[in-house]
Amino acid sequence: MTVAFATTDDGVRLYYETYGDGATLLFIHEFAGDHRTWHPQVRPFARRYQVVIYDARGYPPSDVPADPAAYGQYRAVDDALAVLDAVGARRAHVAGNSMGGFTALHLARLHPDRISAAVVSGCGYGAHPDVSERFRAESETIATAFETEGSQRMSVWYGVGPARVQYQAKDPYGHAEHVQVLAEHDPIGAALTMRGVQKERPSLYALRDEFAAMDVPVLIIAGDEDDGALETDLMLKRTIPR
User: Using one digit for the tens of pLDDT, what is the confidence trace for 171-203?
Assistant: First the structure.
């Protein structure tokens, strides 16, 4: 294992870990997780790949910029590229979940020369035009709660929301680890990420023409009870050629 920091073009340091050798496989975590989310995947995949896991900006030990303008969907894409540059990967396979799934999807759309294939998991919540305003309001409520309640108190109720209770039912031990990671979030980083990356991300439906022109192979993974993402995932499946 190698532990290091990548430095972005705006001077933010991103913590990352690398394991194994071979073609690079980059994992990108969800909002409620961090690099530790992917430890169960590291062991099997590091037998055949150079596996890279990292913490997004706002997630210690990565830096937590205080400027709200330092957070955004396309900034998250640039940060992923900064990590690939730091490990010397000209091309990589990428896998992202939820918030990380959006980043993986946009990486494949915007930088096909850097991405060999993308796994896009649990991606699409709040993307449908009919629910966009409600999603933005929910995002603001969550951001404010991190600021006023703190991450520990937030984890008690946010960690058992409707998108997470099935995880709790199927794997109580894994879910407990997941909630503990959430409880350790930096509350300022979490609030700014929720506002800048989540709340303000571009509509996937407005990008359908660009998705239709993509040539990167994309695997879409959807939970059968992830109601907030299923319709969008079907749209992506029907739109992306490969």
Answer: 999 999 999 999 999 999 999 999 999 999 999
Helices marked H in 21-131: 39-45, 73-86, 99-110
What is the three-class DSSP state of 17?
A: strand
Structure tokens at 238: 């029907």
Residue 217: asked if its preceding bond is cis (omega within 30°), the reply is: no
Angstrom CA distances, 167 to 3, 144, 162, 173, 218, stand at 29, 25, 10, 10, 24
pLDDT in tens, 74-91: 999 999 999 999 999 999
> What's the pLDDT tens digit per position in 118-165?
999 999 999 999 999 999 999 999 999 999 999 999 998 888 888 788
Angle between helices 172-183 and 151-158 (to 10 degrees): 150
Q: SS3 for 184?
A: coil
56, 193 in Cβ contact below 8 A? yes
Question: Under DSSP, is residue 181 helix (H, G, I), strand (E, B) or coil?
Answer: helix
* HSE-up (13 A, CA, CB side) for residue 88: 5
The contacts of residue 79 (CB under 8 Å, 6+ apart) are 8, 12, 14, 56, 57
Angstrom distances, CA of residue 201 to CA of 73, 206, 214: 5, 11, 20
Write down the pTM of the prediction. Answer: 0.96
Asked if 128 and 102 touch (Cβ cutoff 8 Å), the reply is no
DSSP 25: E
